[in-house]
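Honest question from a wet-lab person: if I give you the sequences of every part of a complex, can you actually get the arrangement of the whole thing, not just the pieces? Trying it with mine:
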Amino acid sequence: MNTQTLGTTDSQLIRLAADGDARAIRALYDRYSPRVYAVVRRIAGDDDLAQDYAQEAWIRAIRALPTFRGDARFSTWIHRIAVNSALQALRKAETRRKREGPAPEDVPIAPTHSDALLQKQLERALDGLPEGMRRVIILHDVEGYTHEEIGDVLGVTAGTSKSQLFKARAKMRVMLAGLDGAALEHGAEAWSI
Amino acid sequence: MEHLSAEQLARLVDEEPGAEEADHLSACTGCAKELEALREQTLSLAALPEIMPPLGDWRVLEAQLRSEGLVRDPGLFRRLGLAQTPAWMKAAAAVMLFLGGATTGSALTTAGAVSFRSQNAQVANVEDAAFAVRSAEQDYVTAVVRYREMLAQSGGADLGSDPISRFAALEHLVIVSQAAVRQAPGDPFLNGFLTSAMAERDAALRMVSASRDNWF
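Yes, you can. This is the full assembly:
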């Protein structure tokens, strides 16, 4: 990060960035791009899409900066923009896919070692979830949204959000443990990770 | 005994078990372990770190922001690689621009065929005003460039670091400023500028004297 912007507060940077100051925009990007990229990457489940979604999120945010009133923290504000931006893009992609034909089968996740929940394994397992489940588990378990907030963002009820979350957790558990779903119903001894 | 379903266990990560579920969990180590594993999984998800975007993302974003006009263009000085131009030199150019060829400005036009646009252009609307400002900025930069060249031609090869050429340039600036003040004696900017230029010149003179005193 530029040393001149290192000690600058968010509100100062936001004021400058809203006026189009390139260095201030860059400083905000440096501060928050990992957070933005992380959430869109996990929602997208794909690096290329994530880059597009992150770019779109930033462009939306910079466009909207003059309207940022500081009611929420900037990190929360841009995080919400990133989530909405990624979800909206995914919905568009889904619509396009439906028009064009059936989607390819999900790539199965290979069984992972059962003795550790490594970050890569978690990310791979997230990527392997069906989209609806992935969105909910990312927003709830990774990003800390409540079911009501998820309902607002996804346009579903809190009950649907809960139901999707529990399915997602269970499916992830199966993927991470390298077991099939049936094993969970029967052999308790084989469940430990 | 029927085990708790995977989704029941996933729910119990967040919620208290009912009486039957609690009884089962206390009796079934498999389900209890599975619930513990799901809790660990949930905690691990919450602890996932941020992800650095790929290198080059900023450049792509910056290009997009520029194409939408969301980034203010850097000043002409930066674009022309003149960001390091000393302030006093910029000021000298400003004074010359102000004089518009009446005195030393004529030297500029003679030396580099620089012609300044009219400073008295009438502006009818905001677009005209913006254009006038851009034109003025361009003239100002042109003047600085020309001024650098002039100083270089007159022996100031290492502008800013050589005390003698710096003093000579500042002395020239003082003379120009004095001429400007004579034309507009009541102008506060020019008077303030002359005072600053004289202070800079005197400081440069002290540096020259100091370097001569210590030449051995």
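Two things worth pointing out. Chain A has two domains: 1-104, 110-193. Chain A has ten helices and no strands.
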